[in-house]
Design goal:
single chain; about 20% strand; 3 domains; globular; about 375 residues
Length: about 375
């Protein structure tokens, strides 16, 4: 079980750090099942140092009363809390002052009230789980990968093309014995070339790729690919539906910030989920005879009342190395006013008259660069 890390006593103007530099040298990357905060507490490689700098810098710029809570929540809800941190900092860089989790008329607490110079808005952040099955498959591979790494022969580097399907409760005795035999190879000579090792078990195939390399690394060069089914559109739609009740009674316009999957999602998934999709029409001879747009997105549902959300702030990859600015998807039925600073982002809107998605380029120059992401 993860233990709490000590929290600092830093206020907004302090030069102290929430994540101090480790006292002992440690030149290793994070283990597969290691919490990011545990790795950052021990590793001294350049990337770990840059990630500590990133978190310390951005935590220090949050309102003083929220810094320790965000750090605490990173321990227990890393994925969603890291996204909230990025959304909060982006709003600040756009000029907003933030109140975290202020109550609305129903006593619910949306993530942020963002007060801009011209208007205040509510922002709720949602980081849905994409490709949950792939995540579970990845977890089952961890003990298999760890065992292969522990048996890596001296002088060789290993890549993994395929692994058998062995669940957490299944016996790994045959797998371990087979891998030990496969990797019982002598130190490579000057004439040795790369080699492929394949063994078939009742649970599946072990397919390893070895090549001689003068390295001290004990890590795998690559791991077996995980099967991914793109469910981005459905997850985005579900995020919109699941958050309506949280913000329905808010007095200010509400934006929903959604983090999509970093594996396969694109802004086109937001286009389809929120507005609709283009299509081609063919005749009986498979000749293209027309194109069109089906406005079947969740923002184009036929309703008369004012929409819960004024729009969506769409994020793709969110992490230490993130480089993509968000896109504002404005709800077609929202007739109110949004902050001028928010309107500087790239905007996508559905035009009912032309039955098309209109795109207005971003005017927020250097926004991502100001967040000073990690570049190592």
């Amino acid at each position: 079980m993860c233990q709490d890390i000590p929290l600092g006593t830093m206020d907004h103007n302090s030069s102290s750090t929430w994540l101090p530099e480790p006292s002992a040298p440690d030149d290793t990357y994070a283990r597969r099942d290691e919490h990011a905060l545990d790795w950052l507490a021990r590793s001294t490689i350049a990337r770990a140092k840059a990630c500590r700098r990133f978190l310390n810098e951005h935590l220090s710029k949050l309102p003083a009363g929220t810094q320790s809570k965000i750090l605490h929540d990173l321990r227990y809800k890393w994925h969603s809390t890291f996204f909230e941190l990025i959304v909060a900092r982006l709003l600040q860089e756009l000029g907003a002052s933030l109140v975290f989790e202020g109550s609305n008329r129903e006593g619910r607490r949306p993530d942020f009230t963002a007060q801009f110079s011209d208007i205040a808005i509510i922002v709720e952040a949602k980081a849905p789980v994409f490709n949950a099955a792939a995540g579970e498959e990845q977890k089952t591979q961890i003990p298999l990968l760890d065992f292969i790494e522990s048996k890596m022969p001296e002088g060789w580097t290993i890549g993994i093309w395929q692994l058998p399907n062995i669940g957490p409760a299944d016996s790994k005795r045959e797998f371990n014995r087979t891998v030990e035999n496969m990797l019982h190879v002598p130190h490579p000579s000057a004439d040795d070339e790369d080699r492929e090792l394949i063994e078939e078990l009742p649970t599946g195939i072990i397919h390893l790729h070895l090549w001689p390399k003068n390295t001290r690394s004990i890590q795998l060069a690559w791991e077996a690919p995980i099967t991914v089914f793109d469910n981005s559109e459905d997850r985005i739609r579900h995020a919109v539906k699941s958050k309506r009740s949280q913000v329905r009674s808010s007095d200010a316009p509400v934006l929903l910030a959604i983090q999509a999957s970093s594996i396969g999602s694109e802004f086109e998934d937001f286009d389809m989920a929120l507005f609709g999709r283009g299509y081609d029409r063919f005749d009986e001879r498979r000749r293209l005879v027309g194109t069109g747009f089906a406005p079947d997105g969740i923002f184009n549902e036929k309703r008369d009342k004012t929409p819960t959300f004024a729009g969506v702030l769409a994020f793709l990859m969110v992490g230490f190395n993130a480089r993509t600015a968000p896109v504002l998807y404005r709800h077609p039925r929202f007739s109110g006013v949004l902050p001028e600073a928010i309107l500087q982002l790239e905007r996508r809107m559905y035009n009912e008259e032309s039955n098309k998605i209109q795109i207005q380029p971003s005017k927020a120059q250097g926004l991502v660069e100001r967040l000073n992401f990690v570049n190592v």
